[in-house]
UniProtKB/TrEMBL annotation:
One Pfam family linked to the record: MBOAT
Transmembrane segments: 37-59, 71-91, 111-132, 144-164, 247-268, 303-320, 359-382, 402-424, 445-463
Protein name: Alginate O-acetyltransferase
Similarity-based family: Belongs to the membrane-bound acyltransferase family.
Membrane topology summary: Multi-pass membrane protein
InterPro entries in UniProt: Ac/AlaTfrase_AlgI/DltB, AlgI, MB_O-acyltransferase, MBOAT_fam
Amino acid sequence: MMFNTPEFAFLLIVTMILFYAVPKARLSLLTVANVLFYAIVGVKYLLLFGVVSTIVFICARCMKASNKKPLLWLGISVSLLNLIFFKYTAFIFKSVERFLSLTIVPHDAKWLSLALPLGISFYTFELIAYVVDVYKGKIEPEKSIFRFWMFIMFFAHMIAGPIMRGAEFFPQIKKIDTIRFHIGNMRMGVFLISLGLIKKVFISDNLAPYCDSFFAHPEWLNGAEGWTAAVLYAFQIYFDFSGYSDMAVGIGYLFGLNLAVNFLTPYLSGNATEFWRRWHITLSSWIKDYIYIALGGSRHGKFRQYASLFVAMTLSGLWHGSKWTFVAWGMYQGGLLIGHKLWSTVLNKLGLKNRDNYWWYRLANMIGFFALTCLGWVLFRVESLTYALALMKRMLTFPEAFIFPAWVKHFWIVILFMVILHVIEHLLLKHMKDISMRWHRWFPTPVRGAVYTLFVVLLILLYKHEQSTFIYFQF
């Protein structure tokens, strides 16, 4: 069940009404809603989730000073093996077969083509974070299986994040019976859900056909066409994924729950480090805390730090999908992060620590890094690594990269419009409280009501009946 469907809207409204009507039954009510939400995908995957999550719950619950480590590794292993079996088995066998030039298993074996359980990558990361945090004593093991399931499978964030941590979500769940209806939460929730719908339905879904057309035959694109396709896809995937994340946070507000913010206008970043603080924030935070730091982080010298960073980002790429293009994308991102650290070290030694105070330097960095980001999206979008690398080469070839055929020039008007929207979003989020105060102070209730009504009417009129899935649901 997707957020942009009438069925989900019905489930959300009914659940919210009952949530505030029967405060003492809130945990049970949300458990039922979560089960219904996920069961639509398939009961067998719901049962699988129940088994895996229950094992992790028991491992954490039984941890004592004398037997912590075996239970830690059991919880991690069960979570990872579940993910590896469904997501990487076919990839591993095909890669080995290609390397050894032999057939290990029949290609028509049904177990190699099992559908990927919805949200498996996201709930796996939450399970691992939970059992590791209990092991390290950062949080106490949860005693209630229902509160634990609420933490993992709350329908607002289960399928594609944000990736929640026990320390930030369990305290809210334990006080769920005391949450009161607050008009401010309703306004913020409806605003974020509306913003997410606009991003997904009106922007990303309308960019999708053009991106699909460009990348249907990447071998036919010249350098300039490659840049056009890459920039369009950059905005398609951003508005799609950030739209989902906005809706997830907005749904949380409707129930008085605070979910982590996942995006902060990342294409206004000036370097790779800043980008990963603003793009898929909860994933980059997870990668840092549970992979990068576990590998040594910055504690063992620069070389070890850069090696840990490169490995962590490569694994991040592999997490996104079982293809060598995703692995290459992760390596590319690791290279950008290492390159930024080396460049910063050089500039600091030259006494240029305050370089970001100059607006022209900041703007040049934003434009340059956005180009590097779009170049990397080619690896993420193109199915074949060979085709992706060949297209990237053409995009970096002079003068081919600047020879725009007449038929693609109008796309850059669309791209300019996307850039303006991104800047407007940044200003809107930066001045949210002030804008909200002015909106309610300057415009009377009837005017605001008329605007809301007009928005709903436009949404209904322009809404597409063929709902497209969110891009990150496949991960």
